[in-house]
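Hey, can you fold this one?
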Amino acid sequence: MDFLIEKVEDVRNSDIKKQIDKRIKEFNSLKKKDNKDWFSELCFCILTANTSAELGIRIQKELGYKGFTNYKTEADLAKRLKKAKYRFYNRRAHFIHLANKHKNIKDILKKIKNKNEKRQWLVENIKGMGYKEASHFLRNVGFLDYAILDKHVQRLMAEMKLITLPKTMNKKKYLEFEKVLDKLCDSLSLKQGELDLYLWYIKTGKVLK
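Sure. Predicted structure:
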């Protein structure tokens, strides 16, 4: 863990920190936005599962809130995703279509005070969202206390001998790995959502969202 702490500190002492700070500022800004912005971000997180963040960002920009909500049928939404060259257009169109019943997502989550219950609600009520996607969404709308354990972060943790990569990720494993990162957060005085940006940069050389 000490070696990883050193690598994070190296990034914090570089110009990359400015990019990361800018991204965190954007997350905090989105926390103040309305249901439409939150729902658009929810759709982005649904789209990025098992694909790239770059692709999700591009689709989100092309379709926007109107594209995710103003359509006649689920098949019409699938056509939009296909036209935008999104690979899993039928399955993700189905997930987004089902999520439309929760377009007031900010109002819903605002009523849930406990942070773990917020994430659990997303996992149980938004089809296509597991703990990673739910954590990703919550971080992107300004709740920085969740670990986003995507394949890049897991691989980095495994390379640093912090975990053994699981054959399948379940709730128990997710929370177990999150506790490992809690120790790293404490050592670096960073929140989980902030640490993720540093770990992601170390592994990919990119700062996205």
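The chain has a mean pLDDT of 96. Let me know if you want another pass with a different chain boundary.
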